[in-house]
């Protein structure tokens, strides 16, 4: 049995709970701020990715069409499109305004991750075929580029438009960097354990990844290690705050907040009995683009939104906790 987390004031650590999924939530991503707001998309093993208002968690819509678990879901830079990767051997492109599937990209096996270019014209996908594919959305029937290089399942792909590269990582314990002009491998980073997650920080400065009990931060310009921080548990996901002073990591039943400079654990949250948190292991974490909140997705099928600064008025938090410390279900029960 896991040990009890450090004691804090639970009345100040009450998240908003986003219900609706029926199976484990495995990937979350916030969009950049667009027209004064931002959005949150979730991937779930129930096969129904969902779009939500970022600051409040309010449900906007569900993308219907996949016939298997959805392993990743990402939004375009302007949040007008979404790309999802699924166990049904497809990646799908969605119109986020209408919920319509714009195109389905057929693969030969499970697709674990997909991403969309900064200008919204191309996508990259990867999965159990160990291949990377690039598609042009103006002629999406066949990939315009395809390469093999990984020795096992690709778990994460990133389109880095600023540097004109694609990043891929997975079970072969290696992050690979691919030049988009030649689509050849130009750099790599090896880890001791299979890579369970990889993301680009909101400002594009760091590549964050998790492998075994270690969190890695790579300089996104040089692909050299800026920092590797060991943890006491198998970490599943990590997200760096916009101020680069802290990061959040998930893996077991609790979410842990760390100081970025020292690697010291600052707080432990998410025990269901004490902190109104999750009832299952946490698979994915993500900070909002303004750094005011972070989202966690769990084996228990819920998403929870947590304040970076508990007690601050923001979104549905109005600078007071409910007297009975009940959770706020943002699918219909809002704070008074």
TrEMBL record:
One GO BP: spliceosomal snRNP assembly
- GO CC field: SMN complex
Superkingdom, taxonomy of origin: Eukaryota
Q: Where are the WD repeats?
A: 63-104, 147-188, 275-316
Which SMART domains does the UniProt record give? WD40
Kindly state which keywords UniProt assigns to this record, in alphabetical order.
mRNA processing, mRNA splicing, Repeat, WD repeat
CDD domains linked: WD40
An MF annotation (GO) of this entry:
RNA binding
> One matching Pfam family, short form?
WD40
**What InterPro entries would the database entry show?**
WD40/YVTN_repeat-like_dom_sf, WD40_PAC1, WD40_repeat_CS, WD40_repeat_dom_sf, WD40_rpt
Family of this protein = Belongs to the WD repeat STRAP family.
Name of the featured protein: Serine-threonine kinase receptor-associated protein
**Organism of provenance:** Acaulospora morrowiae
